[in-house]
Every structure is written in structure tokens, then in C-alpha cells.
Specification:
Layout lengths: L2 H50 L11 E2 L10 E2 L3 E5 L1 H4 L7 H26 L7 E6 L10 E9 L2 E12 H4 L2 H13 L6 H14 L39 H19 L3 H12 L11 H12 L4 H6 L9 H16 L3
Parallel strand pairs: 3-4, 4-6
Antiparallel strand pairs: 1-2, 2-3, 5-6
Helix pairs in contact: 3-5, 5-6, 6-7, 8-9
């Protein structure tokens, strides 16, 4: 081999070595960059979880999933829930295969059981019945409304809860704060509370635990008060969860502001004590309809250790101070009217 060929061969090897080193270097740099990007993403996700959601502990609930059930059985079941996919949801690409439904159902039930445990710790009680959850693409023609309903029956002038149902369009179910709002209803609906308080507590959980940003808290309740033609607080005309109209946003925000201000004044245990007192007496079961606000304020005053009637009267609620004898007499009169007696 002459000197010229030997020189070319050496230069070729050098070029190959340089190329290999360049590729290796690029791979090392690329892997390092990928690892750094993954670390940054994990950090952002952790900050997002900590900043927007209250942390959940892992649930020990038993979970069973059947992605292709028969006879209208649920697709999944746990200690406190059943889960079904509506037909319109199963027609979508993301849920039309058994494996897709199985993976989602397991994940959803694990999450909801953990959330259930957290809500139990916050309120101090839990429903005695399973909560039946159905997921839809559209519920009643909309993907914007999630609803929780409580079924009950009467017997010997006492209401017995027979079931709790939650209906979620998937777009709403995937919103963490909506799940918290609706699960709050699943817990508190069993007490047949005034609409304004039931919604106010649900927004309290949505805002201050799930960190959902849908409603603003009013710093001055008197300044933002809205009155009806009789000069009373418009909140008491609130018919229900799904009622629309120009006052809807104000009602949610004002109800939340009232329950939040009372909680700030009398401590985080206030509503736990309220529900403990209601659970002890079980008087709510003897009501024909929803609980009057005066009835609720009786328990809130006991829990706060202070007469709260002036607070509510100042905000133009139609309330008066009650004793338990007043409540028992009110229930007696309702039952007499219901049975047609004298």
C-alpha cells in the first residue's frame, strides 16, 4: 500500500470516529435533555396537584369491574359506588372497547373512593346507601350539567332514603371541582337541607378544597344582598340545583359567601357539629319537604354556641328563633295535615 492510500485510510477512520463520537454525544445530550424535561414536567404536575386539589389518600375499597355486563348490571362496583357507562358514551371511540371501559372504570372508582373517604373525614358522616354514578356523552341533551338526586319514601310519617344517583356528562366528570361539588350533594342531600345552604356548602367544598374557580366570594354580604319584592333575601326563592335565570351565578356565589363567612367566624368544625346534631336528632326525616331556614339556624346556633338568628335576619332571611319544642310542634302539624287529621 502506498503512502497516499494509507493517508486516506487513516483520515477515513478519523472521520468515522468523529461521527461516532458526535452521535454518542448527541444521544447523551438528548437523553439528558429528555430526562430534564421529564423532571420539569413531573415538578409542574406536582405543583399543579398541590396548588389546585386537596390531596387524597389511597382507598382500601374493594373494586370489581365488568366492562361487558348483562341485565343492566353496572360496569364497575366498589364499597360505596356503582358505575355505569350510558349507551351514547359507549358509542364513542374512547369507550367502545371493553379494555378501554375496564381501565377507565377502575381508575374512576379508585379516585371516587378516595374522595369519598376525604369527604367523610371533612363532614363526619357518610350516606348509608351506595351512590350510583352514570356517565354520559350528553345528559338530557347537554354536556354542561351534572346532577345528583336522592330518592326516598315515606313510612309512618318518616322519610327513608332509598338511593342516591349521580349523572355526569363526561365533560363535567373530568372537571375535578364538579366531582367534588356533586359528591358533596350526595353526602348532604340526605338531610333535606334548604337549597341555598345545600348549594353553598357544595360550592364551599368546590372552592376551598378542590380549588375550583367558578364562583367569587363576596367580602361584604350586606353590600351584595339582593332582595325580592317582599324585601326578603332572594336566596330563599331558590327552587333547586338546576334552576337557571339571571340570578343563578349570584345565588351560588352568595350562598357560598354566607356559609364560608360563618365557617371563618366559628371554625372549621362548625358544619361537622351541625351534621352531628342533625344526625343525633334525626328530625329532618320527619319533615314533609325541605328543611326551613329557621330549622337549620337552630342547629347552626347550637353548633356555633351563639344565637345566629340576628346574623340571618340582618341579611333579610325569613327566620325566627326556635326551640326544639317549636320544631316538634311544626313537624306534628305537618304530619296532621299530611294525614288529613285534626
Amino acid at each position: 500500500m502506498n503512502n497516499r492510500n494509507r493517508t486516506l485510510q487513516i483520515k477515513s477512520r478519523e472521520i468515522i470516529i468523529l461521527l461516532v463520537l458526535s452521535v454518542v454525544s448527541s444521544l447523551i445530550i438528548g437523553c439528558a435533555a429528555l430526562q430534564e424535561a421529564q423532571q420539569k414536567r413531573e415538578k409542574r404536575m406536582q405543583e399543579k396537584r398541590q396548588g389546585k386539589h386537596f390531596l387524597l389518600s389511597a382507598s382500601k375499597s374493594t373494586i370489581n369491574v365488568d366492562p361487558t355486563p348483562v341485565d343492566d348490571k353496572p360496569h364497575g362496583e366498589s364499597d360505596h359506588y356503582t358505575l355505569k357507562f350510558a349507551d351514547d358514551l359507549m358509542a364513542l371511540d374512547d369507550y367502545d372497547e371493553a379494555l378501554e371501559r375496564e381501565v377507565f372504570a377502575k381508575s374512576a372508582l379508585v379516585y371516587m373512593e378516595s374522595l369519598y373517604d376525604s369527604m367523610h373525614n371533612i363532614f363526619g358522616f357518610k350516606p348509608k346507601h351506595k351512590i350510583h354514578v352514570t356517565l354520559y356523552q350528553l345528559f338530557r341533551g347537554s354536556n354542561r350539567h351534572a346532577i345528583t338526586g336522592t330518592q326516598y319514601r315515606y313510612g309512618n310519617n318518616i322519610k327513608f332514603v332509598t338511593g342516591i344517583e349521580m349523572h355526569f356528562p363526561m365533560d363535567m366528570y373530568e372537571k375535578h371541582e364538579v366531582r367534588v361539588h356533586e359528591l358533596t350533594h350526595a353526602f348532604t342531600n340526605i338531610y333535606f337541607l334548604p337549597t341555598w345552604f345545600n348549594e353553598g356548602v357544595a360550592v364551599l367544598m368546590q372552592k376551598e378544597y378542590a380549588k375550583g374557580g367558578m364562583f367569587t366570594k363576596f367580602d361584604n354580604l350586606e353590600l351584595h344582598l339582593k332582595k325580592d319584592l317582599n324585601g326578603m333575601n332572594e336566596l330563599e326563592n331558590w327552587d333547586g340545583h338546576g334552576a337557571g335565570g339571571p340570578l343563578t351565578q349570584w345565588r351560588y356565589a352568595y350562598a357560598y359567601s354566607v356559609v364560608s363567612e360563618l365557617r371563618e367566624k366559628y371554625g372549621n368544625q362548625l358544619y361537622i357539629k351541625v351534621f352531628e346534631l342533625m344526625e343525633r336528632d334525626q328530625l329532618h326525616q320527619k319533615l314533609i319537604g325541605a328543611m326551613p331556614t329557621s330549622f337549620l339556624v337552630y342547629y347552626m346556633s347550637q353548633a356555633a354556641g351563639k344565637d345566629l338568628v340576628p346574623f340571618f335576619q340582618n341579611l333579610k332571611f325569613n327566620v325566627r328563633k326556635l326551640e326544639k319544642t317549636d320544631i316538634l310542634e311544626y313537624i306534628r302539624q305537618l304530619n296532621v295535615q299530611n294525614t288529613g287529621g285534626h
